[in-house]
Specification:
By secondary structure, the chain is an alpha+beta fold. Helix content is about 45%, strand content about 20%. It has one domain. The protein has 3 helices and 3 strands, in the order αααβββ. It has a 3-stranded antiparallel beta sheet. Strand 1 and strand 2 form a beta hairpin. Helix 1 (about 15-60) packs antiparallel against helix 2. The protein starts with 14 loop residues before the first helix and ends in a 7-residue tail after the last strand.
Length: about 130
């Protein structure tokens, strides 16, 4: 049968739909990866904020853990821990935020850890 321009062959119907359906899983995987990368970056930013707030609170003789908890978003508050170390005229706080996963029941992503050091507001006399 000779090919006539503008006339579709009966065998081509639905081919684009099938190709599109085959591409949807790839698009979904890219979207999930992009969202997860965003969560990793957000968790790292929140860890830095928590470390600075915790160090500031500890430098004023307040609870570093409480300062950390108040500095992060409510969604990450339960995933945040802070450790405090004093040395001479400074205090160093390390904040660790467990990175959430968007895939349910799969949470091996890891943690974001940031450290901040601040001078003590009233250093001990020697």
């Amino acid at each position: 049968m000779p090919h006539r321009p503008g006339v579709r062959g009966a065998g081509d119907r639905g081919q684009v739909a099938i190709e599109y359906l085959g591409f949807i899983p790839i698009l979904m995987l890219i979207a999930v990866a992009a969202i997860q990368i965003g969560l990793v970056a957000y968790s790292a930013q929140q860890a830095g904020t928590a470390a600075r707030a915790g160090a500031r609170a500890a430098s004023l003789d307040r609870s570093a853990q409480q300062g950390c908890q108040q500095a992060v978003s409510a969604a990450l508050s339960g995933r945040t821990t802070c450790g405090e170390a004093r040395g001479g005229d400074t205090v160093t706080v390390t904040a660790t935020v467990r990175i959430p996963s968007i895939i349910p029941l799969w949470d091996p992503i890891g943690s974001a850890r940031k450290t901040a050091t601040m001078p003590l507001d009233d250093p001990p006399t020697r």
